[in-house]
Amino acid sequence: MIRSMIALYLLAVVIANLVVAHYGQAALPFTAFLLVPLDLVTRDVLHHEWQHDRLWPKMTALIAAGSLLAFALNHDAGRVALASFLAFALAGAANTWIYHLMSNGTRYQRMVASSCVAAVVDSLVFPFVAFDEPSWFLCLTQATAKATSGAIFSWLFLLRFDKEGAR
Fold first, then answer.
1. 20 to 30 Å CA-CA from 84: which of 29, 32, 54, 73?
2. Quick one: DSSP state of residue 54?
3. How do residues 35-45 score in pLDDT, each as one tens digit?
4. HSE, side-chain direction, 13 A CA sphere, residue 10
5. Which SS3 state, helix, strand or coil, does residue 166 take?
6. Rounded distance, CA 79 to CA 6, Å?
7. What are phi and psi of 166, to 5 degrees?
8. Residue 166: inside a domain
9. How far is CA 68 from CA 14, 119, 154, in A?
10. Which residues contact 104 (CB under 8 A, 6 or more apart)?
11. Distance separating alpha carbons of residues 79 and 160, to the nearest angstrom
12. Which residue from 51, 64, 36 is spatially nearest to 120, judged by alpha carbons?
C-alpha cells in the first residue's frame, strides 16, 4: 500500500502543478477540491506508515520529488513548482505536528484536524509565491474546499482500508 500511496501523492501533486501552471489562478478551485486533499490524505497515510522509520527525510524527499517532477515535465511550471514545494513543505510540517499532537484522537480525527490546518497553511503560502497578485477570496475558498474535501477523502480512505479508524 505504501508504493501506491507514494504514486498517488506524486500523481496528484504533478497534475495540480501542471494544471495551475497552465491555467493560473482559475485552476485553483479544481485543484483545491480534488487534488490537494488527495495529497493531504495520502500524506497522512504515509505519516502513519513511516512514523517510526525516518518520517522527516522521507516526507521531505516526497515533497521535493513532486515539485521536481512537475518542473521536469514543464519548465514553465518552475514558479508553480517552487510555490508547491514551499507550500507543501510548510503544510506538511503543520500536518505532521497536528497529527502527532492528536495521538489520543481517533485516526479519522487526527487526519481531519491535521488536514484542516495544512489546508489553511497551503492556501496562504502557495498563491503568494505562485502569483503576482493572489486573490484573498481564492485563498479562503481554497482553504474551505481543501478542508471539506480532505475530511471526505479521509473518511472514504478509512472506510476502505481501516473501518475502525473511520469511526
1. 54
2. -
3. 887 887 888 78
4. 18
5. coil
6. 23
7. -80, -10
8. no
9. 9, 22, 26
10. none
11. 36
12. 36
What pLDDT score does 45 carry?
85
Residues 6+ apart with CB under 8 A from 141: 28, 29, 32
51 within a domain of the structure (yes/no): yes
Say what the pLDDT of residue 59 is.
Answer: 86
Question: Cα(142)–Cα(31) distance, rounded to whole angstroms?
Answer: 9
Q: Above pLDDT 90, what percent of the chain?
A: 29
Structurally, the chain folds into a number of domains equal to 1
Quick one: cell of 154? 479521509
pLDDT value of residue 146: 87
* Mean pLDDT, range 15-24, rounded to an integer: 91
What single-letter amino acid sits at 97? W
User: Residue 29 in 3-state DSSP?
Assistant: helix
Which tens digits make up the pLDDT trace of 83-131?
Answer: 988 998 898 889 888 988 998 998 889 989 998 999 999 999 999 999 9
pTM (two decimals): 0.80
Query: Is there a domain that residue 109 lies in?
Result: yes
How far is the C-alpha of 76 from the C-alpha of 24, rounded, in Å? 12
**57 is in which domain, residue-wise?**
2-161
Supply the pLDDT for residue 101: 92
